[in-house]
């Protein structure tokens, strides 16, 4: 039986199944399957950030449990593929690493004790609903004594053999320490936003240094330690190193230069299981997918807005999900699942799925909550992205779930009602016709 769930700015998650008209059509100018199947999805998720966990402590136990259930229950948003920082990120309560003892190349003072108060219980709460959850992790900054300048924000890794050997050991210790807490780190991404030289924790990495570190230090260290954690080339927040600026201040991006320099080195390539893109990486993922179709791709961080949590930005997030999944990504990861309504620790407040107000502890579900739910609740892990054609291709996408059902997620981005017809030429009993509300998000399970 077909199902239709619709969301507008005023009416959320309305069951409109009774308004579906079966057509039996074998074609549609709006959206129809073309017979092609593409990548299987790992799923959807978000990032475990300290500034999300702390507001959760201000609500009642029942309210906290309900939020966690909505995010992670298989019957709710079903966040199965999630992210955690290695040490502090820009939405940590304060900046830290797991070893700030200068010159401790053997990592004798390594400790995740800080995370035992915040990130680890946050992840454990999710594991109650997702015991087999996949988790990928990335650092925003190495320990400060490994960097120049010696600070969490800005700078680069000092690329001496002693430093890089110690940093590889740091990652081994991290994976092992989290495993001792019952948390499997599925993937290790070497650096968050390799092109970001920011006032929050960050670290620039050239393509050559990334290649050397993975090939000569991190890969061998993971092998020697017997870790099953996959090494990923991520997270990439742009097409390339952006070092060349042409006339009139225009960046002449070479979309694959950063990854090509690494992947054409077979000794580095053998350690790399996938590539993660975010932010300006949206402009590179299609080129990488064309050049390296055998390499798995994910979207690693949803763009974050400015804290207004507007409907317009939610519509943009819908576009991003459609774009990444149509260009080979096997996962889409939201950024701040939960925030309060105060300023961030470094001056840029951002959007979130839930807001918990700081003064009254009111819980709000923001527009992007509904966008993510329209996908993640209905598109199951293992679903295949289906090829489609039609005038709604930029506003809709189709999937085949492991149980054989077809899911169509469609947006009407226009300010007026739009007729929408979907056709499955091979199974016309799935073909339907509806009228989409203005500025709406819609999910069909057929």
UniProtKB/TrEMBL annotation:
Residue stretches making up the Glycosyl hydrolase family 30 TIM-barrel domain: 42-379
GO BP term, example: glucosylceramide catabolic process
GO cellular component, one term: membrane
Transmembrane domains' residue ranges: none
GO MF annotations in UniProt: glucosylceramidase activity
Limits of the Glycosyl hydrolase family 30 beta sandwich domain: 382-444
Entry similarity comment: Belongs to the glycosyl hydrolase 30 family.
Protein name: Glycosyl hydrolase
Organism: Bifidobacterium margollesii
